[in-house]
Amino acid sequence: MKAKKNTQALSEEQFLKLYNPEDYIRPSVTTDLLILGINKDYSSLKVLLVKRNEHPYIDRWALPGGFIQNDETAYNAASRILQSKTHLRDVYLDQIYTFTKPDRDPRTRVMSIAYMSLVSEPDETSSDDEAWFNLKFTDQSIELSNKEKGIFISYTLKKESFQNGIVRYENFTAALAGKEGLAFDHIEIVIEGIKKLREQIFYGNQAFCLVEKTFTLPELQLVFELILNRPLYKKSFRDMVSEKIVQTGNEKKSKIAGGRKSKEYMMKEI
Amino acid sequence: MKAKKNTQALSEEQFLKLYNPEDYIRPSVTTDLLILGINKDYSSLKVLLVKRNEHPYIDRWALPGGFIQNDETAYNAASRILQSKTHLRDVYLDQIYTFTKPDRDPRTRVMSIAYMSLVSEPDETSSDDEAWFNLKFTDQSIELSNKEKGIFISYTLKKESFQNGIVRYENFTAALAGKEGLAFDHIEIVIEGIKKLREQIFYGNQAFCLVEKTFTLPELQLVFELILNRPLYKKSFRDMVSEKIVQTGNEKKSKIAGGRKSKEYMMKEI
DNA sequence: ATAATAGTGTCTATCAGACATTATCTG
DNA sequence: CAGATAATGTCTGATAGACACTATTAT
């Protein structure tokens, strides 16, 4: 089969020798990471942002990201960047979507393959150009805030109806509400990532990535509620997760004064 | 804000002038299309394949695809390629996944942003290098066949368990069973596309893209069953779709002799 | 009439939503 | 004990699975 000639009577070997990648458009390709975690006191969803120290969008906050190297898959690149930021291994990491608007980067054509990572116990990195932000995602707005740095990034959301063939989508469109927003189109990555996580959280086991190895059901429920941004009924929630978990035998004291001890659980190994 | 200088004391304007895209890795980026349709007699799921007339994988069947041009989004490129193949407009077209293995193309680094399109009434294109193939996707195998051309492409599937952080995936891995398979990693695109379609079919309206504007419920049920590759209970199915459809008032005769006439339906406009 | 297909009726098990009750802990 | 939190009980309504039955057509 290798001997097969093409229309110019070239074998595959000859063809590959003559092939010049410069004949085709070659954009830069990056991967950007939506790294999510939960506050230690389960009061807020958190997202890791970095402050850009270079043009374009210099001094703006952005999702961590970087160019994909020659010998890497997009996943490998995302994994490398994730490790350089969090020093964590074997962490949940999944492709969200690929963003390709021609003008999304003013330098040159840059496409971005976005990944989402879910980590437990975000350690309090306290560098100047890297920080965990509180993330609040409602039907009306997205707010990213960091109290220590006094930064409050805010977008208002409009639900817009898109038509794809005969299928109608309800999609969020973000409009910057405050003075300065995230760099590039990173707010769209946040939106797509949260949307995907909300779709999957009931069927997959993503929530278990955001709690510690052992957890109580009130804690796990808070994780679900933070992601979905709505309260869940305690009994229904417990019924729903009951066959995914197993008791450790231990009990945990509630963080706040008063109240009964919680039973401790682990994810059930199949 | 434009006046802000970077570490080399360059303004954004100066920086962009000096910025050289050649300093970074720039792969070629294509989009490949999984274009699905249903046989006129609702007996088989169909996929549009093209025969490659150039190295690499010359003479192999492949998903239609092409390079993304300078001024296009990936969606625009997919839409352009789709129209050149099917001459259809306003058709369902959605991003599936981006494939980035460094060696997936022997020419050079080529990433592919895969899209899925759903069309009704595949017209019988009967050219030498473009044809609709029957697609059968079971838990054990994927078979792509075209009787007129005497082509039967077959892969056996293994369910493999992948671990992503704490989340375990059941994923299909394809191994070529026949003599020649699809070009490149296109079988993976088929797998990812069908997987995504199966996940969405009950919640979205994708099935309506595969039938004609008016349809009967036995027809619509066949579409679901072909995609899911399992039988559905008639009554449950009808209850499930009942609030998405509306009667036209017409009746349609069954294609085969004998049997009661079916009522005709349309998708309900919201 | 018979076979084939279309369309309904109904029972069951499951499960999310909703709310009430019991259990346990701190001060 | 009061107040707070954890855990469980129970009712309802919706729905998927399963099967049975009725209705309409062609031969």
**Relative helix content of chain A:** 10-25%
Low-confidence stretches of chain A: none
N-C termini distance of chain A? 45 Å
Task: Give the CA-based shape of chain A.
Answer: globular
Helix/strand/pairing category of chain A:
alpha+beta
What radius of gyration of chain A results from the CA coordinates?
22 Å
Averaged pLDDT of chain A: 92
Run of helices and strands of chain A? HEEEEHEEEEEEHEHHEE
| Separate helix tally of chain A | 5
Assembly context of the chains: homodimer
Q: Give me the count of strands of chain A.
A: 13
Greatest interface and its participating residue counts: A-B, 61 and 62 residues
What percent of residues of chain A are in strands?
35-45%
Q: How is the biggest beta sheet of chain A arranged?
A: 10 strands, mixed
Question: In brief, what are we looking at here?
Answer:
The structure is a homodimer of 270-residue chains. Chain A is an alpha+beta fold and 270 residues long.
